[in-house]
Amino acid sequence: MKTAGLRIVRVANFVTPVSGGLRTALRHLGEGYAAAGHEPVLVIPGPEASDETTPQGRVITLPGPEIPGSGGYRVLTRRAPVAAVLASLAPDRLEVSDRTTLRWTGEWARRRRVPAVMVSHESADGVLGTWGVPGAAARRAADALNRRTAHSYTRVVCTTGWAEAEFRRIGARNVVRAPLGVDLCGLHPGHHDPGLRERYAHGAAVMLVLCSRLSPEKRPDDALEALAHLRRAGVDAALVVAGEGPLRSRLTTHARTARLPVTFLGHVARRDDLAAILATADVAMAPGPVETFGLAALEALACGTPVVASARSALPDIIGPAGDSGTTPAELAAAVRALLAVPAPTRRTRARHRAELYTWPAAVSAFLAAHTALPTGIPR
Asked: What is the distance between the alpha carbons of residues 55 and 351, in angstroms, rounded to a whole number?
């Protein structure tokens, strides 16, 4: 028998044990839905089938093939198994995180009169641009994709105005804004660790951190190039990279060939370890030009570390006065120098205060409003 809460079934691709922002967002939203008295169920791809109960609700894994060269990303390519699971779950609400291979779920929900939400986690024309598609062609393709997406779902959720803009330009009227949040209790400046700086930055006066998936759309090469610009300008800086991805080997070779002081940590599994890295750094780098929100950057701010981001992304609006931005590696390096000129206590306080504007309870409320699913007051 169902309780007063709604069964909110979420389907997502591109979620792996080492993926970052999407996995974090799904976890916090699921926990928030459950705390509000609803029944969240998450359906994701994996190497084999499984069904488990977690703090974010029931998590169903269906076998999905790995995308070659993606560093472990899997997708739910077969409709029949997904449709069978959805039918068996009989959702009251559907939430989908992938507007390409999963867009068919919008029509599935429409036929069954299930209100469905598509969450836009990326800029379509931005991603196409990073793949080398010329600007005009990328925009036309993105507009066509977004029209079909907006038509297929009850609502489209965008986390920032920057992400919302590509839907507004096609005249979509069912777009709502729902920013994400950050764990302000688990991520804070108190994780600062001078010993960690000595271990990873090898005594450099300035420690930079890049917490990112090492894939083309994230532009990790720009962080290494910015480091090279800083060192040529006489700044004794080192870079610590936390993250995995298909570009890891190339970046390692680049750092070694250019004799850049870069430490590659791979995927950092423990949240406390990641918090210590973020809190110990002087500046966090976020060079990806297609970030629609940038949870890793927000986590750095929560740890009291200012952020230098791509001026082409949504991040300048997120970080506000707690960071700076640039387009080229030289501009990113100049932004780092500008932040370093600000007294450390001032820049770290600004960063923490900025992060405090984004909480997960507020994000959960915004997403539930998009679902027209008010808290039930029934804890689970």
From this structure: 30
Same domain, 207 and 308: yes
Report the residue count for the chain: 380
The answer to whether residues 254 and 108 belong to one domain is: no
240, 291: one domain: yes
> What are 74's two structure tokens?
């899997």
How confident is the model over 163-212, as pLDDT tens digits? 899 999 999 999 999 999 999 999 999 999 999 999 999 889 999 999 99
Q: Is residue 376 part of a domain?
A: no
Say which amino acid occupies 73.
Y
Sequence-ordered strand ranges (E) for the chain: 7-12, 39-46, 50-54, 57-63, 93-97, 116-120, 155-158, 175-177, 206-211, 237-242, 262-266, 283-286, 307-310, 323-326
Give me 315's structure tokens: 């991040």
Residue 243 lies in a domain: yes
Residue-wise pLDDT tens digits, 31-69: 999 999 999 999 999 999 999 999 999 999 999 998 887
pTM (predicted TM-score):
0.91
